[in-house]
From TrEMBL:
<keyword id="KW-0238">DNA-binding</keyword>
<dbReference type="InterPro" id="IPR002104">
    <property type="entry name" value="Integrase_catalytic"/>
</dbReference>
<feature type="domain" description="Tyr recombinase">
    <location>
        <begin position="666"/>
        <end position="862"/>
    </location>
</feature>
<dbReference type="InterPro" id="IPR052925">
    <property type="entry name" value="Phage_Integrase-like_Recomb"/>
</dbReference>
<dbReference type="GO" id="GO:0015074">
    <property type="term" value="P:DNA integration"/>
</dbReference>
<dbReference type="GO" id="GO:0003677">
    <property type="term" value="F:DNA binding"/>
</dbReference>
<dbReference type="GO" id="GO:0006310">
    <property type="term" value="P:DNA recombination"/>
</dbReference>
<dbReference type="InterPro" id="IPR043502">
    <property type="entry name" value="DNA/RNA_pol_sf"/>
</dbReference>
<keyword id="KW-0233">DNA recombination</keyword>
<feature type="compositionally biased region" description="Polar residues">
    <location>
        <begin position="52"/>
        <end position="62"/>
    </location>
</feature>
<dbReference type="InterPro" id="IPR013762">
    <property type="entry name" value="Integrase-like_cat_sf"/>
</dbReference>
<feature type="region of interest" description="Disordered">
    <location>
        <begin position="230"/>
        <end position="255"/>
    </location>
</feature>
<dbReference type="InterPro" id="IPR010998">
    <property type="entry name" value="Integrase_recombinase_N"/>
</dbReference>
<feature type="region of interest" description="Disordered">
    <location>
        <begin position="1"/>
        <end position="62"/>
    </location>
</feature>
<protein>
    <recommendedName>
        <fullName>Tyr recombinase domain-containing protein</fullName>
    </recommendedName>
</protein>
<dbReference type="InterPro" id="IPR011010">
    <property type="entry name" value="DNA_brk_join_enz"/>
</dbReference>
Amino acid sequence: MPRGNSKKGTPARGQGVKRRRMADPKEKEQPIASVVNPRSSGESVIDFSSDPGPSQTSTGTESNIFNENIQFSQSLPCLEESLFDQIGCYVPMKLKDKIWKHEFIDLNLLIKSPRELANFPDHEGDLVVKGGHMRIESLPCRAIPNIHTWTSAFMIYMSILLEKQSSLAQELLKYMRDIRFAANKSHGWGTYDEQFRLRKAQRPQSSWAVINQDLWSFYITTAMRDQGQSNESKVGFSSQSEPLHSFRQSSGQQNVQQPRTCNAYNTKGKRCNFNPCRFKHGCSACGGQHPAYFSDEKTISPTTRLTFLGVEIDTSDMTLRLPSDKLDELLQKISFVLKSKKVTLREMQSLLGSLNFACRVVVPGRAFCRRLIDSTIGLNKPHYRIRITSNIKADLLMWKSFLKNFNGLTLMPDRLWTSNEALEFYTDSAGGSTLGFGIYFKGRWAHGLWPRTWHKRGLLSNITFLELFPVMVAIILWGSELRNKKVLFHIDNEGAVHIINKKSSKSSDVMILVRRLVLETLHHNILIKADHVPVVPFPEPSTKCISDTNSNSEPSMDSITEESARLFSDSLAGNTWKSYSRARSVLDSFQLLYTLDKVWPVPVEQLVQFIAYLSLKHFSPATVRLYISGISFSHKERNLEDTTKNFVVSKMLEGLHRNHPQRDNRAPVTLPLLRQITDALPSICSSTYESLLFKSSFILAFFAMLRVSEFTTKNKSDSSTEALQLSDVVVSDCQLKINIKKSKTDQRGYSTFIVINKYRDNANICPVLTLKKYLAARPAVSGCYHLFMHFDGSPLTRYQLSAMLRKSVNFCNIPNPNLLKSHSFRIGAATEASKRGINDETIKKLGRWSSGAFERYIRIPW
């Protein structure tokens, strides 16, 4: 047979026989000299020695100088991915545009090779003909195989998105952490990610950091974990991702990726039906070659009643209760103490420990532990004995009644407090032997006279007792209609308010009412608290009316004395009184320390020594001047000569200021900084509402030049109306009107109206738009009228505002964060107004300054 090179397709040397290559019917037509070399995909080969043509022959002795293949590329060269390249640099612009527009994309596209991405088509699918119409059907999205591949793809997605929206960095990191956490709990994390991003495409303004509770509950919490379920085929995770296994894996010191184990193999009573099984047949806890059967003592099948951390949870009755064994043990301890005249400190502490644990269920019972705790004060030896008094026995009998009758607490009370006005629930009492009490509840009345025996016992003089009695009677009569509610009573008696909130009193008569009141509220699962409402007197009639009605009605001398003291007290603000009182206290300590005579007026020599003493103690010049002003006020109050006006005293104060110049180092909040710290709020606040609350308060504090006391309260229980109320603000489409009823420079309450127009330079920090969004989200909580309040109805406090400002500044990595205080909004607004050319008088009016002090707030470098 003739020999030839079959690989290269050349004829046998020396034969010169022409051989025609048979065409393969499956082979596509190709141009001459375009035979594809199977060794290099995408390249063509010209083989000059393969077919000499019809007019040429080849002899065996003839050498072919074109004996080598020459290769060339038909496509443009493509860069290969490198570790030093920027993440996502090979993603085509059409995909990036979709990401920037928050459109849904298949994350699989982002982990393709650069060569595949370079040829990414506009439409990827199959061309089909249906009903005479030709169309492209999209290919189904290929599921992400595991969480590591998803993380790589999402990092590319995140890098592209942050190119234009850098403020979303924390939200995206939070979302990636949530998905990785979900992957350890359930195999439904892939579906959750797809559904979340589909909803994100519909609502681009939604936050990445907020978990979609519906999707999480459906795909993560209640996802089916059995190996044979069809949901498992969506992602390559075994049902080993149950909560117990997740806890074991996450609690290790190192998070090492372990091979997924077979759930059926590790479950007692089950058998794996897959051969071969794609999961490891090994212990899910230690990885050993044995199944990990869970302990029957620690594993409970689905049930509606479960004991957790010593408390029995009943999801059928929606109650919490003490287990029967703990209940019997506690009742035995109480019975033992009730039968004893004295017990040791160790026995009392053991009882208190058990009662404290029971307070997890019987929350109002904490009030009846106070006397038991007081009985242990001063005892430091376990064998010391404690006498069981009648008060202690009464509290223990109350506990015994709790545990026998009300060992359960409904888990679903109302979320918000409801005022008695909203419930149409009113009570009142009047002291007097011929008077009594009255109750009104939703159109129904109840009233009664005081028993005669109460007058003999002197109970009618105890107004606190009389105020509590109708409240207790009302709960007894209509408590069933208040079941599971949180009732806020507005009472004008401070003593009754304190007792309702503390559930305790030093009066034995009042404690009788308190015990019965607590029992009734426990029976109906009612939570009660009280706020004090100051009595508003009726307007005094005119002089003519007085003379016409009762010419003999004249105020007593005691009333005149009280009124004069009240008027004098109202002449100064409460904080000023505290400062002046502090000044007298420091002066008394100084005189006592150096054995000086306490005389008024204070001798000039003592004042000089007092100023020198404060200077050596490193008191600031402003504090020293404030103390001297307080001493001066005390001289005038006593109608004495004011020795603080002495020439030497004045010059010493001047010298103190010159030696210790005080500079206000507080930095202003500028408009760019305001935008920066408000953008950071969604990443550090606990909810979307909290973020909107602090954003609106920050922006309003800046644009209205508000003092922190003008829109926040001192504490959560502050019921004063000095802070901005909801009725003080009127928002329209283009402006915002604010009524500041009282301020530092308006102690008489003449009110100041501020009009703020829409800020068109940046809609993100526009006070009109921001406050409209906040008011739309603000819940209507009965009894809470503050403008800025939390979702539970509690007002925004000064401490909370300062703390959130500090967190925002630290989150943004702003230099010198300690220089930014809550007053920095006011400083920044005054500085910005001066930069824009607003005259000084207008700035003083906007900031409600009554002097030239506003000049210290303008921080423009010269």
